[in-house]
Amino acid sequence: MQKSRVYFAMLIAILAVSTASIFIRQAQQDAPSIVIAAVRLSLASLVLAPFALHKYRGEIRSLTRRDWILATISGLFLSIHFATWITSLEYTTVVSSVVLVSTGPLWVALLSPIFLREIPSRWVWIGMGFALLGGIIVSLGGTCAISNSQLACPPLIGRESDSTLLGNFLALLGAWAVAVYLMIGRNLRARINLIPYIFIVYSIAAIMLNIYMLAAGESPIGYPPTTYLWMLCLALLPQLIGHSTYNWALRYMPASLVAVTTLGEPIGSTILAFFLLRESPSVVTLIGGVLILIGIYISTLTPSANKR
Question: What is the C-alpha to C-alpha distance for residues 305 and 257, in angstroms, rounded to an integer?
Answer without folding.
Answer: 8
